[in-house]
Design brief:
This protein is 82% helix and 0% strand. With 192 residues, the chain is mainly α.
Length: 192
């Protein structure tokens, strides 16, 4: 039953990641068109380079979010990167609003794509971070499990077969004392 639950959670994680990624892509696309049109209309960039302005503005949200994720995973401060994400998002919201007419409804609608880009991408980064942390935790727990005598002997024998000395095997099996490894090497050599 536990495996079925784990598989279901995995499927839900992938499905939600795909949907969040799709939402981010749609939001990016809508904001992209508005920013491109605004930049060309206001003669900020020539028409043939209009695509660069939205890549710069909305691309910054993506880049700074990834930098914040990296910092967070390395247990470094992500405050500056998160501030840059917020500033880039605010810039995108402002430019998207400036692209439309004077009605409040139009402005609210125009603000939606960059806000959803921010929210969806941050949600995706949060999910990735939690999955990576969970994987790291599970790997640590697995590494800390004591080896059975049979498993330890098999691993020592395998490493001896690779030409490693007892001291080198100790480096590969930090949970096992050098004395135990030396004893295992003696047993293995006696039996072979």
């Amino acid at each position: 039953m536990m495996t079925d639950d784990h598989n279901m959670v995995g499927k839900i994680s992938w499905l939600s990641s795909i949907m969040v990624g799709g939402l981010a892509l749609v939001s990016f696309s809508l904001s992209f068109e508005a920013l491109k049109d605004l930049a060309v209309r206001e003669k900020v960039v020539p028409e043939n380079l209009g695509y660069l302005f939205p890549l710069m503005v909305d691309g910054a949200v993506v880049v700074f979010s990834l930098c914040a994720l990296r910092a967070s995973l390395r247990k470094e401060s992500a405050t500056m990167m998160r501030l840059l994400v917020v500033l880039a998002t605010m810039g995108s919201v402002l430019f998207n609003i400036m692209h439309v007419g004077d009605s409040w409804l139009a402005r609210c609608l125009a603000a939606t794509p960059p806000v959803l880009l921010f929210l969806s991408f941050e949600s995706l980064m949060y999910s990735i971070k939690k999955e990576m942390e969970r994987g790291i935790k599970e790997a640590r727990q697995e590494a800390e499990k004591p080896l059975s005598k049979e498993a330890r002997l098999a691993e020592v024998k395998r490493l001896l077969g690779e030409g490693l000395s007892a001291v080198e095997i100790k480096e590969k099996l930090p949970r096992v004392s050098l004395r135990t490894i030396q004893r295992d090497v003696g047993v293995i050599e006696k039996n072979d």
